[in-house]
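Task card 7
Instruction: Convert sequence to structure tokens.
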Amino acid sequence: MLKIIHAPDPILFQKTKMVVKIDKKIRKLIEEMKQTLLAQTDPEGVGLAANQVGFNLSLFIMKPTKQSKISVFINPKILKIEEEKEEKRSKKKEKKVKLEGCLSVPKIWGNIKRPKKILLEYQTDDESFEKKRSWFSGFEAVIIQHEVDHLNGIIFTQRALNQNQPLYEEKEGKLEKINR
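Output:
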């Protein structure tokens, strides 16, 4: 199993390099990343970028639910984003805020505003290595944006600060607002 790198390790703040070939080393890395993600329990992980385990490569995996198969995304690029329309947003009942966390920033949580729907171009770990384009929405879109941020050297706490959103620290099972 791979060791998860924690902030402020410099690798988390660097833009990753493209994967040019899926060879045995990349396949082994993907398998080890899958094992590492599945081993996370407090909290459970839903995504993991290669730089979070010490590899400066543009690659991440995602498992949005316990029942989901792990998906692999190589050289991902967000091509389009769709924001939720204001009228649609105001008609909805107030929802409970979902906080975002990160395996590389343990016990810290934040409310990050992210587009609800994205078009992603990526490659998978299949034999073809062909580029694919798919739309993702909801929780999957949030995970993908979080992981693509990692590949661009951005961690979610930076997003929270840029959006002037509060951060919370988990202490003894309770969340306490971090004063800045």
